[in-house]
Task: structure prediction
Amino acid sequence: MSFEPAATAARAESATASRSPLLSMRGVSKRFPGVLALSGVSIDIYAGEVLALMGENGAGKSTLMNVLGGVLTADDGEFTLDGAPISLGSVRAAKGHGIALIHQELMLAPNLDIASNIFLGNEQKRLLQPLARTEMNRRAAALLARVGLRLPPTTPVSTLTTGQQQLVEVAKALSVESRIIVMDEPTSSLAAAESEQLFAIIHQLRADGIGIVYISHRMEEVLALSDRISVMRDGRNAGELSRADASYDKIVALMVGRELSGAYFPIKTEKEPGEVMLTVEGLRVPGAPEGVSFSVRGGEILGFAGLVGSGRTELMEALFGVTPGHGGQMSVEGQPFAPRSPRDAIARGVYLVPEDRKRHGLVLPMSVAENASLPSVGVRARFGVVNRSADQRLAETEVKRLHIKTPSIHQKVVTLSGGNQQKVVIGKWLAMSPKVLILDEPTRGIDVGAKAEIYRHMAELAAEGIAILMVSSDLEEVIGMSDRVVVMHERRLKGVLGRAQLTQQRIASLMTGQLATEGLTGT
Amino acid sequence: MRRELGILAALVVGCVVLGISNPDFTGQSNVVNTLRQISMLGIFALGSAFVIITGGIDLSVGSVIGLTGVIIAKLSSHESGGLGHSLLVAIPVALGVALLIGLAQGLLITRLKLQPFIVTLGGMLLIRGVSQTVVQGATLSLGASPLVQLANGGLWSIDGDPLIPYPALMFLGAIAVGTYLLHFTVFGRYLYAIGGNRDAAKYSGIDVKKVETLAYVISAGLAGVAGIAYAAYIGQMSQQVGVAYELYAIAAVVLGGCSLRGGEGTVLGIVVGSAMMRVIDNGINMFQIPYEDQNGVPRLWRLNPNWTFVIVGGVILLAVVLDQVVHIMQAARRTRGAMPARLPVNLPKEPARPPLGG
Result:
């Protein structure tokens, strides 16, 4: 990244001092069933400034952004634009005030072309009038030039890369003359060159006087790009730093609420590694360029680091039989293992706590007891009849063991908080004596307290001799929890690092592909 | 249970009003006849519910009812066009065909990942066409077949009229088996789990394809059982028997608290929903208000039967609207009662921060 932070900071300070905010939020609160997502949050956004919004998963960044964009309505709070009070009751209202949202999951219609997407909902025509295609394409071409995307406006969006789609989203925001553009993790699935291009566009927008809210987990980006950094924690303002004051350590301290996060993870005790539990040799995951090989012992926590799209989830789904791998060999406790479906994997004691727990982990309208017992309900049944009392004892046991906060085991899981939902997913496998437990992003969207508890349970499970595979995008978590770390990049296995080699820089340079493959021989 | 109890209360109130309005409503012949109608609808509505609970839909139910009856008539009738076989041959063959139809549709839906709506729509038309070719556009009479006794006979006859018609016994059997399957077995738990979240069910190691296929087999099977009862009741099988019955089944099931999104519903609700549908039907004929015309002659005001569909449709919409309103109100109350996000347990309390100033 090639801009001068010092100059930007100076500019930001003078701007903040001399001007009143473009948009100001005061005391914004938002409740969801079971959780207070925002509690009295106040944020100012200035024209011609990049405000970075940081915080751990579940800190309330996305909720705040959705309130700002009118997707969610705040329960409490005041909004002023140019000093005049406004309401942000709907997406339309927010758009009318010049606020544009660019979601992490891009909101484009893949079946339509670029121009149609840019003007979707803003065609400037009555419902039954024909579309002004020529005019749309002409204006779209101008907008595409502004964001540096050299493609004809008639290109179908389905043929674009994620980075190009991101730029289409920016063009769409510009098409309605937005004064504030909110970007949620815009670089999470971009290649380095695409990110650079996006940063250049952001600088351009800032120079044009647009207020930019930039939500990201990537510290380097935030430090380089933003004029001001606002940190959120547990739905509250944790603090604000100007570019000049900001440092990696200060931001982390605000995010986690303390200077050092070492105490957060269970203390590692040196222990005898157990028997090899799972070996994978040359497994070809569909879509991967080459096979992967690694092994994990009982009692070991093997971390998987990598960027979004590095193929970690796909690898885990192959291990769990969701999308069976082709080629290669696997074994569990020395016996050949080739799961064709989750049933096969479960039969061998290999369980997955999926990345998307609401989609793959839980039946939301069912109770805690029904969810916890779901995979093993048939085991306890007699002649096909559900053994309710045994199922409920199992649920009680897991609720107690994992400290699941629920009024009763008959509570529907949809009403529980993210952390407690995750514990229910873990609980349903613990009841079935796992040999290999795969945890894909186990603490995503979970508050800090519940996170610490999940870490503690992971350490306990490992101590019981279970082999744990943990996929995580949180480097601190990977380093804090893992005995060894597999680093993946573009669906390849880039390295296996032992405990002594675990540093953020080392993992980061491997997972971004800056460092050549290393340590592949380590097992 | 909220939805079930609500519709049950509405049913009881409706019956009381009808009973007061017209003493014939509670007369033996009307009660027995309505009970028979409820039972025949309830049997195949229960089958449809198995599919609806998985989040699917079965549009072929009415056609399967028709085909079952047509096959029985064709095989067993001694009248013209019939083949004169024993009912002991005809009924198993007809039921077997129904189960095979369910299996074929279930396999198409689960193995080829086709949409249930399209597969069963195709099935509905195709099976109806098969019935048509069998009867050759005419009617097949069951004549004096002993099967006719099935619909009209029953237990505890008073003056030759049965108090409990046989279809009601069949329905009781279906209720018992349905309750057992849906509410007590692992199979039932899996049906609800698939309807609630198909992916989570798969990730929990459930053989989703098998369970789902079985739901379609059960739906078609119970439609076949209902088809036997309708054949006995009608006696004259034409290609028209059972047309649009799948929609009555869906209406009854939804009235009874199932969601077309899947994962919801109880046997009690399905029974009450079926009863509601038939009592509305019957009530439209029965409801009357006595009044005196301008000459002082006592007369009876009755509903115009042309309003039947308006009333049935209105009741269904009213039921789902009320249900949704209650649902939204409950969700809002839950949100208001939400607790603040918990602070970390193992972390020291940080000093209060000054509020951000602007």
